[in-house]
Write a structure and sequence with these properties.
The chain is of the alpha+beta class. The protein has eight helices and 17 strands. A hairpin with a 2-residue loop joins strand 15 and strand 16.
């Protein structure tokens, strides 16, 4: 199969070429997670943090005496964190009734090979290919945002990860000063949000570090938009630029804050919503970035999603897509088919020691 003009052969189920061609014709758009923790392939199933970017403010060089060696500055407070990867997967089944419909679509295409019949067949199996890819990306987002918004301290239990509960919990050595809680929750319209942000900037400035981004989920950013103090300082700009009394946008708030603080400080809003299944089969749809948390960072990117490719057992039935493999399994008695995806990886927060983790719901860590 070479693109949508040549759908799966009427004589066979999906092959690796069919799967690869569908993904090539239907590429996945990049999302916020790709800028915060881009993918990085590893040649092992272990990962470790790296600190090759300094987020310290300007630090003067040391004066040298004659014949002295140049002093080397260590990465203050930084410890390398290492761990293993999680293996996870998703599948979509076809029972005998589904397969019968699939066979009818193939027969229809073989009898009348036109664009409409070809597209009907492509859409039928394409829905399953889209489903497994979306599921893998959703788990990647959950792991990344859940780890970051938990101050890099996350465990895997039946309630949040029924199929990964045996994995060792991740707990980075975050310093005590990097975690704090506000006095008045940001969901209160009278909260002094700008004062809370100023306190965070002042704290990190005193530590010789800088903060330029505030990561927050969309639910809690809506509280920011409706906050009295925020609206007060955005009021003139909103009226002049947008001639509206509606709550200010993220762009208006970020522009206002650059002027208010005299430096670049911006909200980065996590808008994703994913559905996860608990051990008892209950489905919960939510933003993977925790409620009541704001994570201040020095830059947009905070780390990487490190993955290790799984070995492909049958090149005719499995293919690599992004950080995972996708394959097709079929048996004839009873009739059964499954399109599946499986992968191995884990997010790595390299900037854990340069982030500020603030509970904005007034509930302590």
């Amino acid at each position: 199969m070479k693109g949508q003009s040549q759908p799966v052969s009427p004589a066979a189920m999906l092959t690796a070429d069919d799967i690869r061609a569908w993904y090539q014709d239907n590429p996945l758009a990049l999302g916020t997670v790709d800028t915060i923790c881009p993918l990085e392939e590893s040649d092992s199933d272990k990962w470790e943090t790296v600190s090759n970017v300094s987020y310290l403010l300007n630090e003067a060089a040391n004066p040298l005496s004659q014949h002295a060696s140049i002093p080397v500055a260590g990465r203050e407070g930084y410890q390398t964190v290492m761990g293993g990867m999680a293996e996870f997967g998703a599948g979509r089944e076809m029972d005998s009734r589904d397969l019968e419909k699939f066979e009818k679509l193939k027969m229809k295409l073989a009898k009348t090979p036109n664009a409409a019949n070809a597209q009907a067949l492509i859409d039928y199996y394409g829905a399953d290919l889209r489903y497994v890819r979306t599921a893998m990306q959703a788990e990647r987002m959950y792991l990344t945002y859940a780890l970051l918004s938990s101050a890099c301290n996350i465990g895997f239990v039946a309630s949040n990860s029924p199929y990964m509960q045996g994995i060792t919990a991740m707990q980075y050595p975050v310093a005590a000063y990097q975690k704090d809680v506000v006095t008045t929750e940001w969901s209160n319209s009278g909260a002094l949000i700008l004062d809370d942000i100023q306190s965070a900037i002042d704290l990190f400035t005193s530590k010789g570090k800088m903060l330029t981004k505030i990561k927050i989920n969309s639910t809690w950013f809506n509280y920011v938009r409706k906050n009295t103090q925020i609206q007060k300082y955005c009021a003139t700009m909103v009226q002049n630029l947008f001639t509206t009394q509606a709550p200010p946008t993220v762009e208006a708030i970020n522009t206002m804050m650059a002027d208010y603080f005299g430096q670049d400080i911006q909200f980065e809003v996590i808008k994703e919503s994913i559905t996860r299944v608990s051990g008892d089969g209950t489905k919960v749809t939510a933003n993977p970035f925790a409620n009541g948390v704001a994570v201040f960072t020095a830059a947009t990117q905070v780390g990487r999603f490190v993955w290790n490719p799984l070995y492909i057992l049958d090149p005719a039935k499995e293919v690599y897509e992004s950080f995972f493999t996708v394959g097709n399994y079929m048996k004839t008695d009873p009739s059964y088919n499954k399109i599946y995806a499986k992968g191995k990886g884990f997010p790595v927060i390299d900037t854990y020691d340069s982030n500020f983790y603030l509970k904005i719901d007034a509930v302590a860590w």
